[in-house]
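Two folds, back to back.
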Amino acid sequence: MVHLLLAIIYMAFISLGLPDGLLGAAWPSMVPELGTPVSFAGVIFIIISVGTVVSSLLSQRLNLRFGPGRVTAFSVAMTAAALFGFASCRSTWQLCLWALPYGLGAGSVDACLNNYVALHYASRHMSWLHCMWGIGASVGPYIMGAVLSAGRHWSAGYRSIGVLQLALTALLLLSLPLWKKGEEQGEGEKAKPLRLKEILAIPGAKPLLLAFFCYCALEQTMGLWAGSYLALYRSFTPERAAGFTGLFFLGITLGRALNGFLTIRFSDSFLTRTGFVIIALGIAAVLLPLGDALALAGLVLVGLGCAPVYPCIIHATPARFGAGRSQAVIGILMAGAYLGNCLMPPLFGLIANHISIGLLPPYLLLLLAVMALSHRQAVRICGG
């Protein structure tokens, strides 16, 4: 039964990634039909991000009241409804409307699943599950591309992913009895929901939140601006730059697969610190004027370094803060992640526009330095 539930959770993580790249893949086809500026995708992204932040902060209350199984099933169902809503949209205000349930569903399921796995499974599964998310995030745009290449409307791509989400919802509902054992094991450690002020007052929570904010800001900034850096600063052709940007995400996906095996021997903290060192080496390779091959190798290194940071920090949270408070802490970590994703890449866009896109490596190094120092302070306070 435990292995069956784990298999379902693996499918849920693939499902989490499936919708994430859909808007970017479909947007060029949507813009002419909707008559909206290309930049309006940023507005939709912000609305989704606000929803994810809100639901992440509410995840502890939802988890304590309904349990992780029900929260996961309902959240996936909400995401499925949002995808079908996107497919029916014929104006931008409708997209904004359906972006709300999409964000609310994505944030709560992310926080609840991460906490459940951190409590009940070994660290290797956390890394492999996030590797599965990467597969889902890659497959979603591929499905949309296949739909568009076949001459079908972009809405068919959203409906296709929506059907997969509905199927997973049905599977999650059938699996609810499997979640009860884990919920019953945590009964003795359940507590009343903590307010945001109380969570931030937990020793070590603030520096860990800052570290997680910086990590997600670094990952998202690198993913968004690496191609532009190669094209505008390193003189790659736009086609080559676009293709080589995928090396960063390849590094993350392969790194998380490898990290699952490394967790069998090494601690979460050691792997996190090792990730920081590899990220620094990768950024240095991108920064130094030693040839294109080294810069491209740097993209892979940054991805490999990023690979252990997210899953290892999340998995270590129950050990650092206690099982009874882990959902609350993971909830604010998820909220911090979405804020980092939302705020810091546009900030670098302003820097690139008004100063130089060549400042990307120093910007990433600054985020890395704050991340590493904050993580060190959190470990010193909490242990682990």
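---
second:
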Amino acid sequence: MKKISKKNRIWIIIPAALAIIFVCLAFLNAASGGKAAAVSCIELYPSDLINSISIKGIVESAEKNNVYSSLGHPVKKLNVEVGDWVARGRILCELNTEDLENNLAQQKAQLNSSVQSMRQQIQISAVNLESAQKKYDDALKDSENGTTLDLDMKKNAYKNNQELFERGFISGNELSQSEVAYTSALNNYNGLLEQAKDALKTAQINYNNAIAANTDTQELVIKNLEKHLRDSVIRAPVSGTVTAVYAREGASGSGLLFVIEDTENLIIKTTIKEYDISNVKTGMYVIIKSDSTGSSVYEGIVSKIAPTAVKDMSGETASKSDVEFEAQVYITSRETDLKIGMNARLNVILEEKKHVYCVPYDAVMTTANGENYIFTAQDNGQNKQTAKQINVTTGLETDFYVEIFSAELFDGMKAISDVSSVRDGMLININTGGSSRGQRN
């Protein structure tokens, strides 16, 4: 007998297998008396298919300002309460500054006294400097005239007496007297000029010190007191709504006194799981709902995504299995019933297709060679319906639905949604309660 090749065996086996399948189907149909299998269908109509992730967050203000004071003076007057809208610069409260004002008045009086004393000292120093300068000029003139002449005469006399003494014409006593006279004249010349010079130098130093003297320290104290006085009137740094008041009349005005927030521009603070973060980008459209606002739906966009995962109190990345990244959604809807502090449910739209055919994810089957197909309900002309296989191309996929393309698809076509036991050409009976139109996810 001729040996059959492996390739030929394959082609023989496949028709045989198909024959077996059809025989089995025929047998099953015969055994059941031709009874149709019950299936559920959906009617195909163009719809919007959305792929999104669901997260939760807290409504906050886009701009929040904490109003602090470092002054410990007691609160004298409180001008606002929670819920008030305030314009920038409005007085929120005033502190009791009676002791501050008294201290400021005392410092100003001391400054005025110091200024008067400095002026007097400058005048006195100027007079002393002028006098010292005159004495020095006179001493210098004397040294150049009479004092110098007297010194030269005594010096020459002493030298002549030295020669006369060596020749024996005068006694030692006479030589000694001329020496004393010369020394005295020399000391007088040096002493008067140096004294006048020293006196002038001292007078100049005193005058310079008087001119350089200032009241910088006192003026700085006064400047700080005046700033404290201005700061004792607490004003709104921005326009907005007062959402918290911690100031109390009679209590210390130090610390956090008010919180002012922009209630017209709201954001939602949220976190995104690690396995979703790579799919989320800033600018993505967000659908916003809240239990507090019922069925109302608002819009927003992803406005900020943290570059690193949430950190713990020590500044290190939180070590846990479900790593999260902080994110922020800006609420673009202008008029909403959302209020600061409300919990919100968010759907971040990752991808969206409009007016496309889609079926439940389980309605699409795949062949061994990777081709996708669905089953549709077809009228067989005998008042009965059969399952028909249609090859399709898939597109956007969500958790429940998948987009499909095919030239054979048309509006109103019934696609079988439970295909696990359906075969091409088999009789089917559509469950009247299972038919539904293609829908938005």
